[in-house]
Amino acid sequence: MNKVLICGEEGELTELPVQLRSLGFQPTATTCSQTASIACKDQQDFDAIFAHFGEFEHGAALADVSQYRVGLAFPKEIQEVVSAIGSQIDDCLLLPVAVQELRLLFARQASNRSPVQHASQSHPKIVGIDGGLSKAWRIVEKVARHDTNILITGESGTGKELFAEAIHSKSGLPGPFVAINCAAIPIGLMESQLFGHTKGAFTDAHSDKEGVFAKAHGGTLFLDEVGDFPLEMQAKLLRALQTGEIQPVGAEQTQQVKVRLVSATSRDLESMVGTGEFRDDLYYRLATIPIVLPPLRERRADVAQLIDLALARYSEKHEVVRVLGDEARGHLTSANWPGNVRQLHNAIERLVVLAEQEEITAQLVRDEIDLVGTNPPELVIEPRLKDLCLKEALRLVEAQLISEALRDSQGKRAECAKRLCISPRTLSYKLKEHNLQGKEIFNG
User: CATH number of the domain at 383-443, please?
Assistant: First the structure.
């Protein structure tokens, strides 16, 4: 929302244009409803119109405007204005208007309207176009209705599954959207989870069970963290994609499935292909159309809107009223958020719950930022790394970090993997790649 039209007497709305400008909007003020109605029809780029709620009644000058209708009312008119929401107006504000109420109104408007209009988005939970996100949306628009595999890459918390859902919603496919996190499946159960099994196929197979491929028939299958597939399963996945056939564990016959495959990973699959951890033929089949999602630190222009949306969402969820002062908001917008949108949302929810009064204090925000560590430590490059090519330097640093994590976890691989924020399976790959052994490192 950029341009806003205000209709009303100057005495009632003196501060409203100033408040809107402080939030980055471009207000235009009129005192006559007829003039405002003409402006809305002639100048179509107004995104919203603010006027007394009575001006939107049937037969009034502004009754037929198509812009987002915000009804203004005095406290004594509260019952009337609330009853007008949904029919005559889209939202309401009580006079005099506070800046925080304006922020919450725009957050509600952004979450209630279908995708962010200027970005041509189609998922109400995804906000913004900054830092390369608009490019990702353009690709989604072009390929959503084509039967081609898509690989979404990006750091953890950047919204890969939300983009996969958006692709499905724009695809027009009649079948369901089915998602599965590959990193969370034990290796022994992966084939069964993907392709299903028959009764008696193994000890705990008490009945036939469909896998995710069969469940997604006619729709979209989203494989998250596809980089965690072991090599044996990569071969079986490739065959299913090549032939369109799956064979449940214990079954003698194959069955045909038709799915649109969208994959995602936070790992560098190209590097994994180079080290032999990931099959090149599978990689090229998965990445027919690549989509790269930028981290939140590269989307600075979107942070303010994300904060407002999260604040409105979690205030409603926990049935409280919470607002942010300018200093508190400044701390949130300037933080780096290495965990991206997911980390920001988690922080906002904690602030909403922990705040002891309506306004979330700057000190509480500072404590939250210190707790979650939103600012990465200063990078110090060892002299010996400067003489190496990038690939060798990264390998050396990775081996060193794994070694230190193993020592800190006393050689316990599960704890080590948790410290490194990777799956135990990935840790096993890395130990073999770097010729490391947890017990030897711990004892050394």
Answer: 1.10.10
